[in-house]
Write a structure and sequence with these properties.
With 140 residues, this protein is of the alpha+beta class. The chain is built from 3 helices and 8 strands, in the order βαβββαβαβββ. The chain has one domain: Roll (2,3-Dihydroxybiphenyl 1,2-Dioxygenase, domain 1), CATH 3.10.180.10. The protein binds (S)-Methylmalonyl-Coenzyme A. The site of (S)-Methylmalonyl-Coenzyme A has 25 residues, from strand 3, strand 4, helix 2, strand 5 and strand 7.
């Protein structure tokens, strides 16, 4: 079902500061920046590699406000890994397949994600404490 890890999402208080840190430490390049109002984040994608089905990235996430998912996460846990996103060929199909196994879907329908992708989240309590995202890349 999963083709690859699409990205690791990192919650941070200051996007520009963490872009400088990650690009300096690992020599990664920012390939996209976006404000996603629906998800309540300002974000940057740092490219790691390309593979079958799409690329893999570090995604840096700064909350737009304290009541957003990333804002609440920062208040509760501080900066760090917020979610793991798996690349799938068909996000609606993957949602149906995983939902049938009893995992709670946090989205009823796929939503708009980074770089034109379609995404859906799975409840962390049903995936060993890991907030999990399914990603169908716009251009595999
Ligand atoms: C909360 N919990 C987490 C967690 N956030 N566990 C692991 N990783 C996380 N990131 C835990 C809480 O500690 C709590 O555990 C339990 O889940 C229920 O939390 P809650 O009190 O209901 O907390 P809420 O209201 O903060 O909701 C958490 C939930 C929410 C995951 C349901 O954040 C959500 O719907 N997230 C999906 C959307 C999202 O995260 N968007 C931002 C990234 P205890 O043990 O204390 O009960 S958007 C994005 O990444 C896009 C742009 C993209 O990739 O393209």
């Amino acid at each position: 079902m999963f083709m690859r890890i699409d990205h690791i999402g990192i919650a941070c208080n200051d996007l520009e500061e963490k872009i400088a840190l990650f690009s300096g430490l690992f020599e990664l390049t920012v390939v996209a920046r976006e404000v996603n109002e629906e998800q309540g984040v300002k974000e940057a994608m740092l490219h790691i590699a390309d593979g079958e089905g799409g690329g893999s990235y570090i995604q840096l996430l700064e909350p737009l406000d304290a009541d957003s998912p990333v804002g609440k996460f920062l208040a509760r846990r501080g900066e760090g890994v917020h979610h793991v996103a798996f690349g799938v060929p068909d996000v609606a199909g993957a949602m149906e397949q995983i939902g049938a196994k009893g995992v709670r879907l946090l989205d009823k329908h796929p939503r708009h994600g980074s770089m034109g992708s379609s995404i859906a989240f799975l409840h962390p309590k049903d995936v060993g404490g890991m907030l999990t995202e399914l990603v169908q890349a716009a251009r595999p």
